[in-house]
Design brief:
This is Putative sporulation protein YyaC. Pfam families: DUF1256 (PF06866). It comes from Thermanaeromonas toyohensis ToBE. The protein has helices at about 30-45, 70-75, 100-110, 165-170, 175-200, and strands at about 20-25, 55, 85, 115-125, 130-135, 155-160. The chain has about 210 residues and is α/β, with parallel strands linked by helices. It has a six-stranded mixed sheet with strand order 1-5-6-4-2-3. The protein starts with 20 loop residues before the first strand and ends in a 12-residue tail after the last helix.
């Protein structure tokens, strides 16, 4: 969980900085907008698909607010044609205790992986329900004062509740219905965005979910 999205500034000299995208989950076109944005990110940052694609959902199913990442991961692995590896699900979450271990495993398994990170965050009251897509790495644990390694070449974050005080209590008392709806939209955006970038068609059972 992060308080605000952390954008890494360590890009190659010839990198065309992509702007952060930010939409509310109730926007009827949120999946289309985010998937198109993800396609553009992937087209610029991994144009020849030479880097193996990995999605990492960060968080734990033991905290309602912090379950966004694992919910996204579980949704993605349910798509039979999703052309990427997924780490961090409800059954096998990636959290503070095993994040470094999972990152080492990914780097040992895939040569120079391209990682899409997903995490929950806390923010201002008027931003709750907002989903962001940003270039660079995110810094998990910053919102609860934990020092953890930065994760991702690009990242999605979902503002699930208000930050600034008693963060653990706030996460525990976040509405599951909100987190689930946000997770569904993020998962669909990743699914459709990746397929668009790879020039693939959506699985028939998923085509209607926009």
């Amino acid at each position: 969980m992060v308080t605000f999205p952390f954008i890494s500034r360590h890009f190659p000299d010839d990198f065309n900085l992509l702007s952060k995208l930010k939409y509310h989950y109730q926007d009827p076109l949120v999946v289309e907008k985010l998937s198109s944005g993800l396609k553009e990110y992937l087209s610029q940052l991994n144009p020849d698909h030479s880097r193996p694609l990995v999605v990492m959902g960060i968080g734990t199913d033991r905290s309602t607010g912090d379950s966004l990442g694992p919910l996204v991961g579980s949704k993605l692995v349910s798509f039979p044609d999703f052309p990427a590896s997924v780490y961090g699900t409800l059954e096998d979450p990636v959290h503070a205790s095993n994040l470094s271990e999972k990152l080492d495993l990914i780097r040992a398994t895939y040569p120079h992986p391209f990682i899409i990170a997903v995490d929950a965050c806390l923010g201002q009251a008027d931003s709750v329900g907002t989903i962001t897509l940003s270039p660079g790495a995110l810094k998990p644990g910053a919102g609860v004062n934990k020092v953890l390694p930065a994760v991702g070449d690009i990242h999605f974050t979902g503002i699930v509740n208000v930050g600034g005080y008693m963060e653990y209590f706030v996460l525990q008392n976040t509405r599951l219905s909100l987190v689930m709806r946000m997770a569904e939209r993020i998962a669909l955006a990743i699914y459709h965005g990746v397929l668009k970038a790879y020039g693939l068609n959506a699985y028939p059972a998923v085509q209607g979910f926009q």
